[in-house]
Amino acid sequence: MTKIIAADLHYFPNLEFFAAIAGADELIFFPEDRYQRQSYFNRTQIRLANNVGTLSVPIQGRRPRIPLHKIKVSNDQNWVNIHLRGIQSAYGKAPFFEYYFPYFQKVFEQKTENLWDLNLQMLTICLKLLGMPVKMRVHEKDQDPTWGKDIRGLLMPSVPFSERDYYQPEPYFQLFGLDFDPNLSILDLLFCEGPASKSIVLKSVKKH
Q1: Which InterPro entries does the UniProt record give (predicted)?
Q2: Which of 52, 70, 141, 193 is deepest in the core (most CB within 10 A)?
Q3: Containing H/E element for 101?
Q4: What is residue 76's predicted lDDT score, i.e. its pLDDT?
Q5: Average pLDDT of the chain to the nearest whole number
Q6: Is the separation of the CB atoms in 125 and 107 below 8 Å?
Q7: What are the residue ranges spanned by the domains of the chain?
């Protein structure tokens, strides 16, 4: 039986997201869903030398509750260079940085206007590098609901992952410090562990 999951589209999703969708055959995303403040739609966390830092994509306007696919990136704030430098500073010495970074750099340099399109492109690359053959579909207004599991609105920064049933930290090699920082952006895992990333994601699926 095909496993279909309805999910939110995040900016470089964290490990909890990938644990939550592990085993899915297809993901459905909903461009007509409304923008929520304090969500992962425009932010992700990476590990820096002295702390965990947040990368946020600036958004145009006052951001009322409009459909996600209408959210425009504010490209006049030079955020692309800030994010590129941040990622290079955090992971430039990681074992698999030189292999994977060009994929993301290419998309960054396109300066995509819609955050929805940017997130979709980045997630496509992440799934490919992970070796997770998950189909992705964008839900259209008039389509019948055809999914089995709906995790939209459940993975929020305001609630610790430990209070949800998707992710249990599986430690892996990280560049800085002795203590393991769990549930960072998928970038952290990909740059540090490369081809081993998929198995680490699968081991981090919370057992019930």
Answers
A1: WbqC
A2: 193
A3: helix 97-108
A4: 77
A5: 92
A6: yes
A7: 4-203
pLDDT at position 145 is 65
Provide the whole-model pTM: 0.94
Token readout for 69 is 């696919």
Supply 72's token pair. 């425009």
Phi first, then psi, for residue 129 (nearest 5°) are -65, -30
Residue 40 corresponds to which amino acid?
Y
- Asked if pLDDT for residue 103 goes beyond 90, the answer is yes
Tens digits of residue pLDDT in 28-51:
999 999 988 889 999 999 999 888
pLDDT value, residue 191: 98
Q: Can you point out the beta strands (E) in the chain?
A: 4-6, 26-29, 43-47, 52-56, 135-138, 149-150
As given in the structure block, the two tokens for residue 25 are 């055959």
Give the integer Cα–Cα distance in Å for 116 and 129: 20
Cα end-to-end distance, the chain, whole Å: 21
Cα gap 45→17, rounded to integer Å:
13
Distance from the Cα of residue 74 to its chain's centroid: 19
> Beta-strand (E) ranges in 8-94?
26-29, 43-47, 52-56
- 206 touches 168 (CB < 8 A): yes
Spatial separation of the C-alpha atoms in residues 10 and 44, rounded to whole Å:
8
